[in-house]
Fold:
Amino acid sequence: MIEDIAESDKLDGCPHPRKTLNIFGHKDAQSSILNAIKINKIHHAWLLCGPKGIGKATLAWKIARSLLISKSTSINNNNTEFSNKLEIPENNPIYKRTLALTEPKLHLLRKNWNIKTEKFSQNITIDDVRGLKKFFSLSSTDNGRRVVVIDSADDLQTASANALLKILEEPPVNTTILIISHNPSMLLPTIKSRCRLLKLKPLNSVDLQSGVYQALEIESGIDDRILELAHGSVGNAIHLLNNNGLEIYKSLCTLFSTKSGLNRVKAIELASKAANKNSRQYFDTLISMIVIFTNRLALFGAGAPPQNEAIENEFQVLQHLAPNLGSARIWCEQLPVILNSAVKANKLNIDPSSVILDLLLKLDQITQKIQLTERKRYHDNR
Structure:
């Protein structure tokens, strides 16, 4: 049974995207796809990118089902099988087959589960990508469209990325490839250039709350501070709830709250927890908190502070570390650096505690640089 199989493209605590009933937000992206389907001008590859947990994969599965029920011939607006939404009835055979991963015209490319090691493979390998050739070689009996979902392209090796590029350069007829990426800066520019981009943004507060309640199957009871820190990501909110995210964020802010600079002893203590056995969740949560902290610093410095404090006296810390637009630019530049460090750590099996400590020290260096600039400006203006 598919329910018994571990799935690498499923966030802990959330239903799998193909099982998620409603999608919240991303109306522009949905409209782009709907218009393309209705006029039968569907690009052979679409890149859905944006922060993790905001609904990219949920959207991809809704697109996939809509494409599978559409015919290869021109679709008119009166087609009774196709509505003005990316929805098909749950009793539709295609819906049921995609839910069970038994639809012959759909191929899901993701990291595989190794039964012997009881772990996911570290990457999507070149053999995984080459397996698409077998899928493409199968004829479509009803002349319908084939769909590939790749979740996610961030997991591709160099060789597998090049193999995918060859497919994108000579795409199979009547086939659409939906590529999900949380960190598109890591992708080959040539892959991005051959895809139509769907850049998805974090959810607004209303859509975020609705998405979290749907995922948890509840109607209320989520701490507003969790939603504040989730930064528009349902996945982030649930991850924070399940992994003590609020306390980790508080510890992170405390590290940078003093004018004397980073407390190295506390920094080492915080990082060393990532070296413990079975500490992957802690590492992921701490990386998420560093990203969120950095993002909130950038927003604060740019004059667009978060609506609410996530912890007591947070705004005082943000004001200290991001006093102006110049500092906001510096913090913005660090976001891809942090994400890339986390990705490399996972792919290369680098000691997670050293990755965390290195990031904290880099952030401290930036903090000292910003404070030095501010002191110099203050003395120059006296």
Summary: The chain is about 50% helix and 10% strand. The CA atoms of residues 344 and 350 lie 8 Å apart. The beta strands are 45-49, 106-109, 113-114, 119-120, 146-151, 175-181, 196-199.
